[in-house]
Amino acid sequence: MNNIMEDKIIELKFTIKGSNDTICVKVNDSAVIFGIDYLVVPKNMGKLTSKIAINPITKLEIPIFSDEISECKAGFPAYNKNDYKFALKHKLDINSVMPILENEYPKKNKKWIYKQNIVLFVKHYKLDKYLYINYNDGLNSFIDGDSENGETHLETAFRLLVEQSGYVDIKQVDERPLKFIYVYYDKEKDVNMYIEEIFMDIKLKSDKCIEMAKNQKFNHVVKWANKKELKELLCDEREIMNDLLMSCFDDNSKNKVN
């Protein structure tokens, strides 16, 4: 098979941004390569602390820390309780890699496409309820959509809120520390996909809204539900995703924008 996910034990070589130094780390599950959020090196390699390492597969930048350990290790906050606590302590992003079907494993020597998808948890301005979209085909979901070139997460969140619900009066926006990562081979496009799903809390200040765009208002209805109701409404074939989504309501957010 021509894919990068074959071997169960892999030695990864991380390059250090701005230098010729490298860090070698062994992982025993190839799927979690995409969920590495930081590296820890022994104290005798302390010169690398606070520097930035480059993930050899995703090319994303991750921070380096040092500790009383004998060999370099990778941090997987979404899969290890201690790593999760470490990430929260240092206010790091937490990437949870969604399960990959065997026929969707990324391929070697194929182009990588990177995208960010923003999901909104919109809370009612008075009630303890959250907004969801009820589509004409019967499906339910939170407001979500891709970031456009040059947009910040906040800008994307505001644009999606207005486009898909019409609400414009925002009291507070929080960005969650947890991300979902989708890594797969798109057979139709013949490219490897790396999609970050980022979650934003939005608390409305009032029911002030404008008319939605025609291409939006005719294909769905905006509705409200409490947490218990949402778990039933949003349940689909991605059960693991729904469980994680519901847990997000009880997590501490990372960035607050008032």
Describe the structure.
- The chain is α+β, with helices and mostly antiparallel strands and 258 residues long.
- It folds into two domains: 10-93, Alpha-Beta Complex (Isoleucyl-tRNA Synthetase, domain 2), CATH 3.90.740; 102-257, Nucleoside Triphosphate Pyrophosphohydrolase (Alpha-Beta Complex).
- The chain has five helices and 15 strands.
- It is elongated and about 60 Å long.
Please give a quick description of this structure.
This protein is α+β, with helices and mostly antiparallel strands.
Structural class by helix and strand composition:
alpha+beta
Secondary-structure arrangement, i.e. CATH architecture of the largest domain: Alpha-Beta Complex
End-to-end distance, in Å? 50 Å
- Which runs of at least 5 residues are low in confidence (pLDDT < 50)? 1-7, 251-258
The main sheet orders its strands as 2-1-4-5-3-6
Helix count, per DSSP? 5
How much of the polypeptide forms β-strand, as a percent range?
Answer: 35-45%
Order of helices and strands: EEEEEEHEEEEEHEEHEHHE
Helix proportion range = 10-25%
Overall mean pLDDT: 82
Fourth-level CATH superfamily of the largest domain: Nucleoside Triphosphate Pyrophosphohydrolase
Gross morphology is elongated
CATH topology of the largest domain: Nucleoside Triphosphate Pyrophosphohydrolase
Radius of gyration equals: 20 Å
Could you say how many structural domains there are in total?
2
At the first level of CATH, the class of the largest domain is Alpha Beta
Major sheet attributes: 6 strands, mixed
The tally of strands reads 15
